[in-house]
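Below is how a single chain appears once it has passed through the pipeline. First comes the sequence as given, then the structure the pipeline wrote out for it. We keep one example in the README because the format questions we get most often are answered faster by looking than by reading.
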Amino acid sequence: MIELISMIVLIILIIISLIKQYLNEKNNKEINENKIDTFCDKHYKKIWLVFVVILFITVIFKFGEIPTYIGVDEAGMVYDALNLAEYGTDRYMNSYPLYLTNFGSGQSSLCAYLVVLCIKLFGANMISYRLPTLLIYLMSVIVSYLLVSKSKNKKTALLFTFLIITCPWNIANARMALDCNLYAGFFMLDLYLLNKAKRSYQYFIAGIAIGVTLYTYCLSWITIPFFLLVWAIYMFYIKKIKFRNLVILGIPIAIFALPLIYFLLLNYGIVEQTQIGIFTLPILRDFRAEQINIVNWFKTGLGSLKTIFFADETIYVLYVPLFIIGYIIEFKQALKEIKNKEYGISTVMVIAFTTLILSLLTTNIPTPNKANVLYIPLLYFVTSAILFISKNSRIILLIFILMIIALCVDYEYYYYTYRGTIGENWYEDSSLIEITEKIEQDERTKDMEKYVQVFKCSPNIYNLLGAKISPEEYMSTVETKDYDGVERITKNADYNYIYYSMEIEEVDLGKQDYVFIVSSIYESTREYLEENGYKGYQYGDYYIFLKKNN
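Resulting structure:
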């Protein structure tokens, strides 16, 4: 309902703005742009104190506790980070991998190594696991403000920052440890450093940052080169960069990129060596680079755009028309800057967003995670639209701010009372790690054989994380089985996995006593165990079954 109201209010504000603009032009009245600018210049520190309060409410309050669950990819990364911290290998005993294998299709490694550092400093806990994404998000807020403040003015920078810290996607992802969540923050750092660079050493620093960004998320491998190509052409055209500085920028980028290029050659079967000193480059079971194709612009592009702009918990629906308005405004300004051979943030942001989205559309985007890097640059165009419609009207601008606050409060209530505590069941879990920890700490059950039948994407990762099974034990005990073309893990250490209820009958219940962990939805399994002398103890959405005499 609040989204619908905000759209109606937006239409009214646009009409009022057009009428005011018409009357001003008719009466040759100049718009005074000084009042709001002066206010922002004078009080920006106080406004930042308000932003700190918003950041505390949205991402710092109960950090590590909410979300109460952990995602399957998050759990996989954390388990690898724990192993790297303890043994120097991932779960597959790859020494210091530059790219993680995770569940077979790969995962970028930077987040895991930052988690390793946090584990070393603060111990193995949920705050350590998720702290890197929070810190990178906070960094992105600061550099985004500095980028626009230095390039335009404090008014635009403050509104841009306000939109970033109240955006649902940014709020939710600052609280979860996913590799892709680092990309947006690092990309904004790259833009800031490129914008600031004038001397050779500054270009070298920017090159290092861009090189590190390549390890945040694999889709940066196609988006960053495209962005840099167009950006370099623009910079050469307006004569703002020398070839020498471009070479200096490129040297650290090339150094960081070389191992990843080798990784691609390795997975295309062109080279074979997987070990480079102490570092490993794995061969993936499911190599997703082959999914990237320019044909996807036409094949899946429309669906991907729908995901980017309209998926739940990404941006407010209000922002979609505002983005379109803002992009048109900034695109026209960019054309003027290019025509006059001027450097401007409008051109840089248009180049950034356009190259990013065109690159991303070469792959199918079924979930917004793949497009995470867009959800900060996108808000720059929303900022431009709001300021254009407001035309320095304090009342209209205040109405926009109040609408955004209302939308953010509504989302925060939803997040704290539902999304951050319940999850989506199949890909997320809140209890299985705790159950495993309890079983492993209990003298009666820690050495018993366990059977697990739970409704989860990859239940074994939660048991691995809860039991903290070593990579050596994992590799020496893992067993798999083909289920209709899908290879699934059936055993890890003393944990066995049941995927169909009928498989429970294959377990010889008379041979020895077992521990069974069963989702509450598997009623037939629970009845079967009860009929065979087992008693169930409910724990959240699960039952732990033990022999009645235990």
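Residues 394-422 form the longest helix (29 residues).

See the next section for the split statistics.
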